[in-house]
């Protein structure tokens, strides 16, 4: 590794109570951290670094970087041996010394609270016990002698801190109110979402696909408020990491996608994407509540007090300026119809796949975002029909995203685009899987290589056809002259029930002896050598049916109906079925348009994502039910065995000497006629 840069692969950054993995790189002029989950890049200039601290935490060691603006970045996952490398690098290029901080681990909860920028430190005996980033505080309330802090929830965190209370005693020597002073210092740096004052602008009745519904969007200086008929959401601008403006292939609609991290939550469903849809012909005129001077001071004059135009342009422009993120639009990719997307389906849901310059994005349910730098390989796979194909994308964490039912006319354009992005194509150059000709996908096999399977199938079909024709000739064949069949030996007195005749017939069939030609003209039947061999052993089998002579034969023809005991215990349910019974109605309500098969698929996906702690309750219930079932089935078996009467042995009917038999109806009718006579 070069001396002017340090790189650490397995590092975590603290974000609202969750440790997000990523890669940290220290360069001479800046610190760069890239999240592995979302691809978001955080950069810290070398001149902005004010101090660096090194301390031991739960996952190894932590590097805390404090910047001049008051912000704090915490990176965890270092080893003890990394201290010397980091200390030398920071002192050489950043002129900052790496200070070791001793932690208080005695468990005391009485100490001093110190406010340093956007960070509150709680110290016990002048040793750091814990720290609270004030940007994580969502609400602060005061009591007589205490201050309560509520925190933002992060759905990606397995465990979330919800509330903390600090007892702040009054001092007789101090004239000021210590509780109010503590509260004011927290509120000054806290990220409290309060709809105070008038919003900058309000957009009424905007149609959202995820979460589905119509919402009124109010834009405030630090967050936006989505107000619907059932749900309300307050989304801080700091959680918006990407914006997309994507045209619909019909050129009459536009998709505006907002990528969130952490996501918003509705019941048990988390939404990482907000998908807004607009009609291209819809226009709007709005007036912002800020003056021209305030707009120029806050947003560098990028917004005007009065804005008019197509609705999607006004919303995207305001969102881009207020949030402070760039808008991603389609790039160079054009499909067969000169569109920026290809129609497909993902998990039985139809939508559109947009190959952008740095990522794939699928709209709309559920939206899927795949960066090119996390793609391991792509695969062009055959579909069930010959008119479409499947596009498979495998990412680094092992997941495979499959986009089905893409028209084969899109193959050439998509293949060329993927090749230009230097993505690994798994089946590239294999003609037996996919072949390219005229920008279309050829689903047939290659003409240059013989198809062994098809050859074998055709040969078997021809052999069956010859066999069928031979059987027909054997049925029509009545008898042969002694001169024609003199070379063939068979036992004419063999019994039908004898197994030796069947073996001899099989042996004679496998040997296939030739019938020599005579001076007489050949008959059409004798031209086939198989016919005289097959007719002799098969003729008695066809004319004389085998009589039933044993109990074993009778059991084969007897109906296999068995009466079920209504008292037999039913098998116990599994943990998944117990969970499904409790959550089936909820899944149906959240997905009213889903069919029964779709509900089952959604339930299976949700069951896989449930934590082991949540599954433990149902697994214990399933084990208890299984033990009860085993005990009940043993009791039932013991009771059933004692109550079953002994079965009477049925003597087999004697077969006639000729091998023929009469049905019950025929016997009864014959006996009646005899009696009348």
Describe this structure in words.
There is one protein chain. The protein has 677 residues and is of the alpha+beta class. It is globular and about 105 Å long. The chain has 13 helices and 33 strands.
SSE diagram, text form:
Blueprint lengths: L4 E11 L2 E10 L2 E6 L5 E5 L3 E8 L4 E7 L4 E7 L3 H13 L3 E3 L11 E5 L2 E6 L2 E7 L3 E6 L3 E6 L11 E5 L10 H12 L11 E10 L2 E7 L3 E5 L4 E5 L3 E8 L5 E14 L2 E11 L3 E5 L4 H8 L6 E5 H13 L3 E2 L13 E5 L2 E7 L3 E5 L4 E4 L3 E8 L5 E8 L4 E8 L3 H10 L14 E3 L2 E3 L9 H25 L22 H13 L18 H14 L7 H7 L17 H16 L5 H14 L2 H32 L20 H13 L1
Parallel strand pairs: 5-8, 19-24
Antiparallel strand pairs: 1-2, 1-7, 2-3, 3-4, 5-6, 6-7, 9-10, 10-11, 12-13, 13-14, 15-16, 15-21, 16-17, 17-18, 19-20, 20-21, 22-23, 25-26, 26-27, 27-28, 29-30, 30-31, 32-33
Helix pairs in contact: 6-8, 7-8, 10-11, 10-12
Please give a handful of descriptors for the protein shown.
single chain; 677 residues; alpha+beta; eight-stranded mixed beta sheet; 32% strand; globular; disordered C terminus
Question: How far apart are the termini?
Answer: 116 Å
Major sheet summary line: 8 strands, mixed
Which blocks of ≥5 consecutive residues have pLDDT under 50? 429-453, 470-544, 548-556, 646-660, 673-677
Which strand-content bin applies to the residues?
25-35%
**What is the approximate shape?**
globular
Can you give the helix content as a percent range? 25-40%
Derived structural class: alpha+beta
Number of helices: 13
Number of strands: 33
Radius of gyration: 41 Å
Sequence of strands across the biggest β-sheet? 4-3-2-1-7-6-5-8
- What does the average pLDDT come to? 77
